[in-house]
Amino acid sequence: MSEPSLKSGIHPQRMEFSKFTIILTDRCNFHCSYCSQRIAKRWLDISTVTKTLDFIYPRLTRTCHINFYGGEPLLAFDRIRKTVAYLERLNRQRTRKIHYSISTNGSLLTEEILQFLDEHAFFLLLSFDGWAQDISRKKGSFDFIVSLIPEILKRRRISLETNSVFTSETVGHLSKSIRLIIRLGVPGIHIGFSSQPRWTPSSLIRMKKEIAAVRTSFIEAYERITDIPWVEMTKKYNKAIYRCDAGRDQLALAADGKIWGCFLFPHYFDGRNGDREREKYCFGKVDSFLHDPEAIYARTMSAIAGLGMDNFSTPERHCVMCEEIESCWVCPIAAAFSSRAIGKISLQTCRMTRMMRREKDFLLKGFEKKRRGRGARIKAAGLS
Ligand code: SF4
Ligand code: SF4
């Protein structure tokens, strides 16, 4: 029987994954002001996790990543422990190199949990908004997180990075927050911008100024920080039309027992019952997926294959008509939180994406200039 062909050239029969995200619960103990996630109270039972892992494990690449996401995943710490123990049993022959990661607000981290994360060499992505923490996240949590970071950094096998989100109202705290996080010794910083509340022209100007201030301080500190700690500013993308990677080499198991191509999908579709797009992009409940995985995978991937920049548009034009399309990278799900439709990019997102790209170019060029200058000085010193 001939295999269905997909527009993107994805081979539908080849299910091989380098990343698997598990949302053990979508409950959260914080109520961050910009969070669009519905506060739900679902928990994955461990039998659903283990039967999914029985299917996924043989399809994991030799080096692979198991990610725990929420809600707040540490509310389900007991289940995390059981999931890791189950995976270790499946992997007793050590045929896979499994890297574990977790995204957490940090509030539930205890000595016992830190020890567990250290034993299993977790990558820990700590949600921390710097000086905006007590405004956007939980009031009073700033002091706790600031005192927690050195404790995490003492654990040599935990790799720590932070994830900060700024809004149009808190963006004025961006540059001093980055300076604080660097001072605390965090080696990698992720920055995101919430689409709510709306970005006014003046808040966009403030954002530009803040990013320029960060750039200047990075360049001035070049001799001390030869690596730029702002992760998004250093990511390199080949010039090509960007396509969503969901399902291609990653899957996610949501707290309601459904399988998705990426953990962002259940977050976006939560509460949109009856939305036909939801059915289109979902691989279904674990039991029905496991009944006929090849056919369901092929069908769902043919829908996801359409999620490329060449199919997206802003209210002003189709992205395919844009001269910047080959260097533009927009996550369709993140964009849909503000445009309210997958494939549509709001003007605000388009403008912010362009601005970030320009700032990234300035920063990388500034660093490159410093690097060349230092190279020339070393050469001159060696010759003298
Ligand atoms: S583009 Fe967005 S939805 Fe697609 S895989 Fe990346 S993060 Fe997930
Ligand atoms: S810059 Fe805007 S219009 Fe151009 S490809 Fe990106 S999102 Fe589309």
Task: List the topology elements.
Layout: E1 17-23, H1 46-56, E2 60-69, H2 77-90, E3 97-104, H3 111-119, E4 123-127, H4 133-136, H5 141-154, E5 159-166, H6 174-183, E6 188-193, H7 201-220, H8 231-234, E7 250-253, E8 258-260, H9 264-269, H10 276-281, E9 284-285, H11 286-291, H12 293-304, H13 332-339, H14 347-383
Parallel strand pairs: 1-2, 1-7, 2-3, 3-4, 4-5, 5-6
Antiparallel strand pairs: 7-8, 8-9
Helix pairs in contact: 1-2, 6-7, 7-14
Bound molecules: iron/sulfur cluster (SF4) (2 copies).
One iron/sulfur cluster binds at residues 244-246, 262, 264, 331, 333-334.
Under CATH, the homologous superfamily of the domain at 17-234 reads Aldolase class I
Bound ligands, named by name, code or SMILES: iron/sulfur cluster
Beta-strand segment tally: 9
SS element count, helices:
14
The average pLDDT value, as a whole number, equals: 91
**CATH topology-level name of the domain at 17-234:** TIM Barrel
> How do the strands of the widest beta sheet line up side by side?
6-5-4-3-2-1-7-8-9
Globular, elongated, flat, extended or rod-shaped: what is the shape?
globular
Helix-strand string: EHEHEHEHHEHEHHEEHHEHHHH
Give the helix proportion (percent range): 40-55%
The major pleated sheet works out as:
9 strands, mixed
